[in-house]
Amino acid sequence: MDKKRESGEILEHMLLEEIKIEDIDFIDPPDEWDPELHQKEPNVPPVLIEEISRDDEDTESRGYSLLAHHRSFWKTQARGLFTIRALVVRSSVHISLAHESIRNCTEEALLFDALLRNGLSENRSRLSELLGYSRARITQILNLLKLPLEMRRKLLLTDDISEFQLRPIVRIPDKGTQKNMFDHLIKGKLTGRQMALFADGKEKADEYDDNELPEDIEDLMDAPVPVDEAEIFHGSESEELMDEAAANAVILSSYASELMQYLKFSKSNWENELEKRGVSRIDMEFLTGILKLRTGLYSEAVEILEGVIEANPYYAPAYFYLGRCKNLLGDPASAENALRSALEMLPDEPDYLVELAIVLEKLKRDTEASAFYRKAGAIRKRYRTGVVK
C-alpha cells in the first residue's frame, strides 16, 4: 500500500458519485465519537460498494455499504446533509485506488470482505494477486472482523493501530481477556510484540519489564540493516538449498503451529482429539510443555521441552519455547543458546529473531539486539508487501 500520498489526493481525481445517505449501510460511531476532535482531518471521500442480491439470473441492488473513511462520513451525517460524494467500487481500477487510500486496518478488512462477498474478487488468491499481498496476509487482515463490533467501532477512530498489534487479541477466545487486552492496547499504545507477550502470559507478561523494549521498536524494526551488522546473523540471505536439518525444521515448525490450535480446547479434549488423529507422543509432549509455559510453570516446561529436543534435535519450535522459558526464569545466557539453535535451522523466523533480541538486551549487547530487531522487521515487511509467499 502506497503511504506517500494522502488519501484525499488519491481519490480527488476519481469520478465520484452522489449517493443518498439513507441508502448507505454503515457502522455507527462509538459513544466517544466527537466530530469536533476530527475537524482538522481532511474530508476524504468515503469508499462504498453496491450490495447486490443474486437470485439465479436476476440481480437486485440492496443499497450501499460504507467500507472506508468512516470519520468523513460521520462528520457529513452529523451536519445533517442528505447526500454525500463517494467512490463506489465497481471494478479492479476502483479496487486499487480505494485500497491505496485506506490507512485504517479495520477499513482494509471491510474492503477485502466486501470484495469477496460481492464477487468483485472471486477468491483470496485472486485478491492477493491484485493487491500484491500474500494470501496469508489477506487472511490475517480479514481476521480482524472476528473482533467484537464495539472494538471495531473504536478502531475506526484511529489509524495508528496496526493489524500486527491486534493479532494477539484476535487469537484469544475468552471475551473478558480479549477486552482487557484491547483496553491495554488503546490506553498504552502497546507494540505488537508487547501485545504478543500480554497474550502469551497475560498477568505473567509483566515479567518482561517495559524498559527492556525500546520505545521506538516499531521504527527500529523498519530500519535497514547496516552492512557492518550483517555478520551478526548466522543465517544467509542467499538462495542456498536447505540441508536436511533445516528442511525438517521447517516442516516441524509448520506442523507445530497447526497442533497448537488445539490448545484452545480443555486439556482432556485436546489430548483426546489429537489421539484420534494419531499425533505422535513427542508432539503431545511438545504441546504439554507449551501449556506449562502458558500457565507460568516454567521449570516444568523446560524439563518437558528438553525431552522433546533430546528425542528430536530438529524440533526448532521446542528450542524457541525453551529459550523463552529460560529467559523468564532469569537465565538469558541459556536462553540465547536455545534461541540460536532454533535460528540455525530457521534463520528467517521473525518471532525467533525478536525473542533473541530481547535476550541480548538483557545481556547488555544492544548493538546485536538492534540488528536482530531490524532483520525481523525487514522480514515482516516482505510479508506485508507480498514479496514472501
Structure report:
The protein has 389 residues and is of the alpha/beta class. It has two domains: 7-146, no CATH class; 222-384, Tetratricopeptide repeat domain (Serine Threonine Protein Phosphatase 5, Tetratricopeptide repeat, Alpha Horseshoe). Helices cover 54% and strands 8% of the residues. It has 19 helices and five strands. A five-stranded mixed beta sheet has the order 1-5-3-4-2. The longest helix has 19 residues, at 366-384. It starts with 6 loop residues before the first helix and ends in a 5-residue tail after the last helix.
Radius of gyration: 23 Å
Mean pLDDT: 76
Distance between the termini: 17 Å
Count of distinct strands: 5
- Taken in chain order, the helices and strands follow as HEEEEHEHHHHHHHHHHHHHHHHH
Largest sheet: 5 strands, mixed
Largest sheet, spatial ordering of strands: 1-5-3-4-2
What does the overall shape look like? elongated
Structural class: alpha/beta
Helix content: 40-55%
CATH homology-level superfamily of the largest domain: Tetratricopeptide repeat domain
CATH architecture classification name of the largest domain: Alpha Horseshoe
Low-confidence stretches: 202-252
Strand content: 5-15%
CATH topology of the largest domain: Serine Threonine Protein Phosphatase 5, Tetratricopeptide repeat
Total discrete domains = 2
Alpha plus pi helix count: 19
CATH class of the largest domain: Mainly Alpha
